[in-house]
Amino acid sequence: MLFAGVDIGSTTTKAILIDETCEILDFSLIPTGFDRNKSGEEVLEKALKQAGISRESIKYIASTGYGRRSLESSDKVLPEIICHARGTIFLHPETKTIIDIGGQDSKVIQLDDDGRVRKFEMNDKCAAGTGRFFEVLTERILNISIEELGPLSLKSQNACVLSSVCTIFAETEIISFLSSGTPIEDIAAGMHKAVAKRIIGMGRAGQIPFEEPIIFSGGVAKNIGVVKAFEELLGKQVITLENPQNTGALGVALFAKETFDREIFEVESA
Fold first, then answer.
1. What is the dihedral of CA 227, 229, 234, 240, to 10 degrees?
2. CA 191 – CA 170 distance, rounded (Å)
3. What is the pTM of this model?
4. Residue by residue, what is the 3-state secondary structure of 44-65?
5. Please, which residues bridge with residue 2 across strands?
6. What is the Cα–Cα distance from 15 to 93, expressed in whole angstroms?
């Protein structure tokens, strides 16, 4: 028996397949298109094809993310916060804090000793503190690829200070730094610190203590410069997962299996 979790985010859509032992069989990721249902179906079919598995093998499908209600084939819809927590705990059971930065949102989640969500803070209203902030400024202003930004920032000797992480205001500041001859690596490091400072401030505003272990997930977690910025500002180790973009899909897949097992038990016990 197989179970599927589909995470339809604002920027990317992910799918994970697990079996009855909760072993991950495959993971796939595609850009989210205008038709959220189509994106969910496409990413699921991609995972099935990669694993060499037929659609009929799936016993239960659950969805999460911004477009979770768009997936017509979903048997269950779940909030993304609890799915990110569930998936992260499965991969790193001792987790106490999750920092998740995706393409267009960011979250700080505090977990209790049993791995349940105690409280969380989230920004999904603007690009500040999200992957979109880096994408726009890196490619349009710095003229380098997003993949180059992190390693480049590690060469910085004097990170510049951005007074705002509003994409529009930050763009003006960065252009000014470039005009004055500020090294590009110092600008990159300043961008990373500005975002990390914003996310930390968001969490602390919600009285989240950033207790260790701290897990960094989402696409931005691939940026080593942001990881370094968090560690320097928090004075704590920040751990990145091997695949930081799969926690939501994994969590909802695990919930899919648990729901199916519970329903079968209830039927057999009736």
1. 0
2. 9
3. 0.93
4. HHHHHHHHCCCHHHEEEEEEEC
5. 19, 58
6. 22
Is the pLDDT at 169 greater than 80, yes or no? yes
Residue with tokens 């993949």: 147
Closest alpha carbon to 63 in 8, 26, 135? 8
Distances, alpha carbon 235 to alpha carbons 37, 62, 212, in Å: 42, 38, 11
Residue in 130, 111, 129, 128 with CA at minimum distance from that of residue 119: 111
Contact 68/74 with Cβ under 8 angstroms? yes
Please give the single-letter amino acid code of residue 244: P
- What is the rounded distance in angstroms from the CA atom of residue 108 to the CA atom of residue 33? 26
Residue type, 90: F
Confidence at residue 265, expressed as pLDDT on a 0 to 100 scale = 63
The predicted-structure confidence for 180-205, as pLDDT tens digits, reads as follows 999 999 999 999 999 999 999 999 99
Distance of CA 261 to the CA centre of its chain: 28
Mean pLDDT of 113-125: 91
pLDDT (tens digit per residue) in 234-257: 999 999 999 999 999 999 999 999
pLDDT per position as a tens digit, 253-262: 999 999 999 8
Distance CA 241, CA 51 (A): 22
| Tokens linked to 169 | 């205001």
In sequence order, the β-bridge partners of residue 111 are 117
